[in-house]
Amino acid sequence: MDTNSGEYKVVNVNEINPGPIRLDRLPEMLYNRAKVIYEITFEVQHTTFAEFETNFRRDINPESEIKIWERIATAYHTFVKDKGLSIEKKREVYSFVVTASLGMIKPDTIYKDTELLTIDEQRTLTKYFFAEI
């Protein structure tokens, strides 16, 4: 996000440099929570667990980041469980929830049909993501 204009800026993912690793390892409780998140979302992840966990070690406050990811995992799991969805649809669900976590989808968002998610499904996902945990 461009902090001067308040606008989002599209950046090539290859141009993003990860921050420094701040923790040699996560405290055991946070590590275990990260592992559960990864186990719930592993089939739609684009990283290994080692890479996923390392990203938390880069955060200034890994616990707050893990809380966000727990919300992502909960919304994702609640939506996909026992539905026999295709991997493509699961990826779309995951992408939608991650986008919501970045503040790009709000509870009052005007929804648009996507190829894989109906407006009602998007509303349901938004409800799951913004639900009180």
General description of the model:
This protein has 133 residues and is mainly α. The protein has one domain. The model has no long low-confidence stretch (mean pLDDT 89).
Strand-pairing-aware structural class: mainly alpha
Order of helices and strands: HHHHH
Helix content: 40-55%
Per DSSP, the total helix count is 5
The number of distinct structural domains comes to: 1
Largest β-sheet summary: none
For the secondary structure, the number of strands is 0
Binned strand content: under 5%
Cα separation of the termini: 28 Å
Low-confidence spans:
none
Q: Which overall shape is indicated by the principal axes computed on the Cα atoms?
A: globular
Mean pLDDT: 89
Report the radius of gyration as a whole number of Å. 16 Å
What topology does this entry show?
Elements: H1 28-41, H2 49-58, H3 62-80, H4 87-101, H5 119-130
Helix pairs in contact: 1-2, 1-3, 3-4, 3-5, 4-5
Task: List its salient traits.
133 residues; mainly alpha; 53% helix; globular
